[in-house]
Amino acid sequence: MSSLAVLGCMWGDEAKAKIVDYLGDRADYVVRFQGGSNAGHTIHHAGQKYVFHSVPSGILYPASKCVIASGVVIDPFALVDEIEALAGLGIDFTDRFYIDSRAGLVLPLHQELDNRSEKLLGDSKIGTTKRGIGPAYADIASRVAIRFGDLAYPDWLKERVVALYLHHHQNVVKSELEELLDRLSKAYDKLKSFVCATDELLRAAYMEDQYILFEGAQGTLLDLSYGTYPYVTSSNTISGGICTGAGIPPRMIDKCLGVYKAYSTRVGEGPFPTELLNEIGDKIRIRGNEFGSTTGRPRRVGYFDAVAAAYTANLNGLDAIAVTLLDVLSGVEDLKICTGYWIGDRRLESFPAHPLDLAQVKPEYLDMPGWEAEISDCRSLGKLPKAAREYLEVIQDLVQRPIELVSVGKDRNQTINLLAKK
Question: In this structure, what DSSP letter does residue 326 have?
Fold first, then answer.
């Protein structure tokens, strides 16, 4: 095997970064192929907390090379700050960090447009992070975007920025334009050594049998086409997005590992069938520290939804799954797993495509026994309480994919690897 895709398979925040970090010690390349700085990936290792927004989390391994591919949108100022902050923690980017010149830029204008759009939508707002990601992707589709490679051509860049402002019916104030161009020039000076055609780099690496790990951002149910539209992100988060986002053919994706929390969470607006608006939800939120690493917003919490999980497993063509934050459920007495959706007296055969249908479904639940024991020190399946093992078995049966990894804590080593004996 030369490549592995690690994908979040619900509404994001599945602790993908923990799994990428756990598997990253073998990776020659770790690749971000979509999303932007709205994706907050948090890793805890050796007492240190690392929060990533655009930089692939594989950067913690000195031997791994990290790639921001063309499908990502980049806030150049935030990226400079992120790199400098990580460098301050002793992380070296020299000769191991790459940015595709075709990646779109997120500018202050996009953040203004994002904020304005959310205000205008009022009660119908999407619930974005207001980082400007949606407007930046919209500009790419409209062919008016600024791309990273444009920063190398000052005259062309100026023309493109002016055209972008006019496209959005914004006044171009000379002093503000000059200030923006100056800031972009300074950011580019700090980042230009990383710029290359990353698709060529990755295809060559694959043919040389180097190990490539693709790191998804957000989650499958936030996919622009197949998520709970319109309450979605602005890029394709599914396995198919790797091909367009990283510039590789489908046959170069050898394995897909889907990441699911042991319960469900969601940030922002939109239907959430298993949401818990009670003390159980509050308890899970506090135990799991369910607050956004990018925004700090409290996440909505619900029971594990096997209907949605099976849908995303099939959509991504998953080979196996990882279950994270199982330790959070210790001490939660009333555990349930959603096994079906009902609208009135009709049991649905599949995950509904329309948000109005999803908003009115009534979940069918399987009651599961809880467990009291703390499990963060467990390193094998046999060490888990019987109820925890049964809980995992039900998830595996309903999603119809083998569980390969179980995370029982924040740190890298707090992981049960079910393949270890195979």
Answer: G
**Do 29 and 202 form a contact (C-beta atoms < 8 A)?**
yes
Res. 422 pLDDT band, cuts 50 70 90: very low
| The two three-digit tokens of residue 116, written as one number | 């304005």
Residue 26, C-beta contacts closer than 8 angstroms, at least 6 positions apart: 211
Pick from 29, 25, 34: nearest CA to 3: 29
Query: Is 13 a known active-site residue?
Result: yes
Domains with residue ranges and CATH for the chain:
3-102+194-252 (3.40.440.10), 105-191 (1.10.300.10), 260-312+323-401+408-417 (3.90.170.10)
One-letter amino acid of 200: E
CB-based burial, 256-268: b 16+ in 10 Å, e otherwise: bbbbbbbbbbbbb
Residue 41 annotated to the active site: yes
Q: Residue 300: in which H helix or E strand, if any?
A: strand 300-302
Query: Average of pLDDT values for 105-130?
Result: 79
What is the structure's pLDDT at 287? 95
Determine if the pTM surpasses 0.70: yes
Which of 21, 25, 28, 41 is flagged as catalytic?
41
Crossing angle for the helix pair 76-87 and 174-191, to the nearest 10 degrees = 40
